[in-house]
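Lay summary. Proteins are chains of building blocks that fold into shapes, and those shapes determine what they do. In this project we predict the shape from the chain. Here is one chain we studied, written as its sequence of building blocks.
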Amino acid sequence: MDELIENEFASMTVSVDDQGNDRRLRLHDNRTGHVAFFDALLLETLAWAPETELRALLDPSRHRWTADPDPDGGVR
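And here is the predicted shape, written in a compact code that computers can read:
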């Protein structure tokens, strides 16, 4: 079941993906079409990470608006 989660800054669709070796969350950025998968270990890491560590990720200029190639070879 897909769940839409959005606010004035972001629009995401979250679902559970069963296609890999283990169940994981599938996160779809509705504005850009980018998809990311979060397995149990990554989710646990996020749950335990201090908020100060996560704040750096909120800066969109770090990853979202850069000309550096992403791991798949495309341009972000």
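What the prediction tells us: The chain has a mean pLDDT of 85.
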